[in-house]
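Tokens for chain A. Residues wanted.
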């Protein structure tokens, strides 16, 4: 089915950051955006690298103060003048580009069971000067996701930089397709700075409202939500009036699955692992929500929530939950296997119950998928999601941890189920 995703409405939203008991600053709807281009052009403060630069641009005269702190000491370069035209930020950065040092987190040791902070190492890498066609980018928000746990064993070797997505700002460009100050979504792993040739970047839409946190480009208007969008439309093939079941429902993907299913005219049942999360699901408009950890029987709770069964099951969890839920599917029901987070930390593979018998008797359709299958429809998805967010139809919650140094803590916290909505790190 198609969900309505036409014109974009102008709206403004702000977010408030306060600290939770888990140490996460929580965002609850109002956000102070300190990452706006206007401010960025006036003040650039690279507190995490070995140098610092600040500049103050005035209409007729230009002051540029550069303070470069090199390991051996520091020097100051100051220029005042209107002669020869003002220095651009780009030219200025070009001048010092050779000095940019990126911080990166590497996988020191493959995870055994739950990830530990000692499995990671923080390193510094000096970046080379840009070649023609390249860009220098600075990370602003980084995503932490369950897939990093699952993919690390398959795709990484010890010593590799941790995989992951981020929102980054272009701070130097030798590529005419990208201007300095623009924001992009990039897939370059856990790094403060990096160089790209531009081919692997998604520019944030020009219609992105100034007041909307750009971190949403990683969650509710990014990969997590696109997973929900394509999984529901293309794999579950939901239709109005159907009942959709989703687990890990208070998470980045699950919370969007439910809201998109409601927008699409479905009834939604969701499960989460704490009473606080369940209260959040009810606020989001779930028709039925329960704490799967405290019910006496998951089978009974699912039956009570939808006595007629489920047409669609959006599975983020796998394992035991999925093998119970499958018995509650309606005949010809569709199951989208999005994730298997209950299995990612296992050192010994879990065993049955096995699903073949209910699959046969109920003639179910079960399909695993990766959101990257629809990379060619990324813009369509982002446009639709952004529209629903600015209309207030798609609500979001972010768990924001501050500081690049805290990437492992944020990742481990997300795996320990501490997050409500999308877990991100603000550099
Ligand atoms: N296929 C794709 O392309 C794709 C893309 C993105 C994400 N995913 C998958 O989608 C799923 C959700 O991802 P997300 O980013 O939205 O993460 P998330 O929901 O924000 O965070 C993970 C949540 O999973 C639940 N969980 C964690 N460990 C669990 C366990 N052992 N048993 C049961 N539940 C557990 C927890 O929720 P509760 O506290 O409610 O239990 C936790 O908060 C993951 O499996 C992820 O790998 C797939």
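Reply:
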């Amino acid at each position: 089915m198609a969900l309505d995703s036409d014109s974009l409405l102008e709206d403004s939203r702000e977010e408030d950051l306060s600290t939770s008991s888990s140490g996460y600053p929580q965002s609850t709807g109002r956000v102070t955006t300190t990452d706006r281009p206007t401010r960025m052009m006036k003040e650039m403060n690279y507190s995490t690298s070995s140098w610092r630069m600040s500049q103050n641009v005035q209409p007729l005269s230009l002051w540029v103060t550069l303070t470069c702190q090199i390991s051996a000491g520091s020097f100051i370069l100051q220029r005042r003048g209107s002669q020869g035209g003002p220095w651009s930020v780009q030219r200025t950065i070009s001048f010092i580009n050779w000095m940019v040092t990126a911080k990166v987190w590497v996988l020191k040791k493959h995870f055994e069971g739950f990830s530990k902070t000692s499995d990671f190492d923080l390193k510094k890498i000096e970046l080379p000067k840009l070649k023609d066609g390249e860009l220098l980018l600075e990370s602003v928000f980084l995503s932490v996701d369950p897939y990093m746990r699952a993919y690390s064993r398959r795709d990484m070797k010890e010593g590799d930089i941790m995989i992951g997505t981020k929102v980054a700002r272009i701070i130097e460009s030798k590529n005419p397709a990208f201007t300095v100050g623009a924001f992009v979504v990039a897939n370059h792993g856990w790094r403060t700075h990096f160089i790209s040739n531009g081919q692997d970047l998604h520019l944030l839409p020009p219609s992105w409202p100034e007041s909307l946190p750009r971190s949403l480009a990683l969650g509710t208007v990014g990969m997590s939500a696109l997973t929900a969008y394509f999984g529901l439309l293309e794999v579950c093939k939901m239709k109005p009036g159907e009942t959709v079941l989703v687990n890990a429902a208070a998470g980045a993907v699950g919370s969007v699955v439910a809201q998109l299913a409601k927008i699409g005219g479905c009834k939604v049942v969701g499960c989460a692992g704490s009473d606080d999360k369940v209260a959040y699901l009810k606020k989001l408009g779930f028709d039925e929500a329960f704490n799967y950890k405290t019910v006496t029987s998951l089978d009974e709770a699912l039956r009570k929530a939808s006595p007629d069964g489920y047409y669609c099951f959006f599975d983020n969890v796998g394992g035991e939950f999925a093998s119970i839920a499958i018995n509650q599917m309606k005949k010809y029901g569709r199951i989208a296997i999005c994730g298997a987070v209950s299995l990612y930390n296992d050192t010994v593979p879990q065993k049955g119950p096995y699903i073949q018998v209910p699959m046969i008797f109920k003639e179910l359709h079960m399909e695993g998928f990766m959101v990257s299958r629809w990379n060619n429809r990324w813009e369509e998805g982002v446009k639709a999601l952004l529209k629903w967010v600015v209309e207030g139809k798609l609500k979001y919650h972010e768990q924001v941890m501050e500081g690049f140094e805290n990437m492992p803590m944020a990742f481990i916290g997300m795996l320990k189920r501490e997050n409500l909505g999308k877990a991100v790190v603000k550099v």
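The pocket of NAP is lined by residues 145-147, 150, 224, 227, 248, 250-254, 272-274, 277, 316-317, 338-342, 369-371, 414, 417, 419 (CB under 6 Å). Residues 223-236 form the longest helix (14 residues).
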